[in-house]
Amino acid sequence: MKIVEAKVIVCCPGRNFVTVKITTEDGVSGLGDATLNGRELAVASYLSEHILPLLKGRDARRIEDTWQYLYKGAYWRRGPVTMSAIAAVDTALWDIKAKTANVPLYQLLGGASRDAVLVYGHASGSDIEETVKAVATYVQLGYKAIRAQSSIPGLNNTYGVGHGGMHYEPAEKDAPPENQWFTEHYLNFVPQLFARLRKEFGPDLQLLHDVHHRLTPIEAARLGKELEPSHLFWLEDPVPAELQESFRIIRQHTTTPLAVGEVFNSIYDCQTLIQEQLIDYIRASVVHAGGITHLRKIATLAEIYHVRTGSHGATDLSPVCMAAALHFDLSIHNFGIQEYMRHTAETDAVFPHSYTFENGHMHPGEAPGLGVEIDESLAARYPYQRAYLPINRKLDGTLHSW
Ligand code: GCO
Ligand code: MG
């Protein structure tokens, strides 16, 4: 089953997406997401200049071999650009394989391990009471797990807080927006927010929080400890995770469950974290961690060490990635939770899909393959627009992690 065409489609229906489409000699085509927020064209060019010309004539059925060919063949291994590009090809080939077998992808991955996939939504507000209202809205929508972020008093803007409506989009045109940071304000505020949320919603609602890589290990340890009475589902990205060993310090001090991994792109980024049981959830995604093929290897390593998955699913990952994540989540044994930020109506129209949300859970649907398509003529009406993620500065102007 030879590949006859492989192309990359860049579009911006509200935000930028990079999509790979591979077609075989018998007319079956598959899709893969290659979106790397803020650096989209680096991946698009890696694909069109270096990878796609190699695919013509290859056997679409040889997924593992193609993965190794692109990974080992680059010589310069790993990194978000390379791994997102490989991920997109890998995902498209799985889509083709499942469509050819006329089954939804999860059937090829071992079949369903559960009836549906638990997801968490994003609630945010400009203060504690507004955040309580936002969480209540998600409860009414049926969510069983909700991430809560709030503006921090004394700072002009805060990560994860939407500006009206339910769609959060931090990227901005022309130049990176600048956020403010002051650790002490944050550390004093967050335990109050979660104590209030627990009081309002009782013990059963799953509550999550994203620190977005901003603390040192001992600061994160303090936060985890103070949040213990609020029983979080997880505390996400407490510190920048380039130094995996830093989680040893956090772990020694708190029983708050820890999640990390949205910026990881290979199993080597989380090897220590998993093998030393320093985290509870690995958040690597299909698009940024080498596709279905590589993410399955990460999940298998994690399973041995009682670490569960919690794939990144922000709106800067396209519906193609969302569909792939749901097939993966439904099939693996050690699934934990899936992040779900709903895409805008414009994005959903460009990427019609069979996945559904009901009662706090999602299902990838029964359409053959991933169950997601791209409307290419509609996509062409939304050309790429350069956009940057924010940067973050301390009150004295020092650059901090965003
Ligand atoms: C999350 C993430 C996102 C990222 C975004 C960057 O947990 O959903 O932290 O909000 O900031 O994906 O592009
Ligand atoms: Mg995050």
Q: What would you say this structure looks like, in words?
A:
- The chain is of the alpha/beta class and 402 residues long.
- The protein folds into two domains: 3-104, Enolase-like, domain 1 (2-Layer Sandwich), CATH 3.30.390; 108-367, Enolase-like C-terminal domain (TIM Barrel, Alpha-Beta Barrel), CATH 3.20.20.
- The protein is 36% helix and 18% strand.
- The strands form four sheets. Strands 4, 5, 8, 9, 10, 11, 12, 13, 14 and 15 form a ten-stranded mixed beta sheet that branches. A three-stranded antiparallel beta sheet has the order 1-2-3. A three-stranded mixed beta sheet has the order 7-17-18, with no helix packed on it.
- α7 links the parallel β8 (206-210) and β9.
- α1 (40-55) packs across α3, α2 packs antiparallel against α3 and α5 (128-140) crosses α6 (183-201).
- The relative contact order is 0.17.
- The model has no long low-confidence stretch (mean pLDDT 97).
- D-gluconic acid is lined by residues 37, 210, 212, 262, 312, 314, 316, 339, 389.
Biggest sheet: strands, sense, closure?
10 strands, mixed
In total, the number of domains comes to 2
The proportion of residues forming helix, as a percent range, comes to: 25-40%
DSSP strand count: 18
Tell me the name of the CATH class of the largest domain: Alpha Beta
Fold topology:
Blueprint: E1 3-11, E2 17-24, E3 29-33, H1 40-55, H2 63-73, H3 80-101, H4 105-108, E4 117-125, H5 128-140, E5 145-150, E6 172-173, E7 178-181, H6 183-201, E8 206-210, H7 217-227, E9 234-236, H8 246-253, E10 258-260, H9 271-275, E11 281-282, H10 291-304, E12 308-309, H11 319-331, E13 338-339, H12 345-350, E14 356-358, E15 361-363, H13 376-379, E16 387-388, E17 391-394, E18 399-400
The structure holds D-gluconic acid (GCO) and magnesium ion.
Magnesium ion binds next to loops.
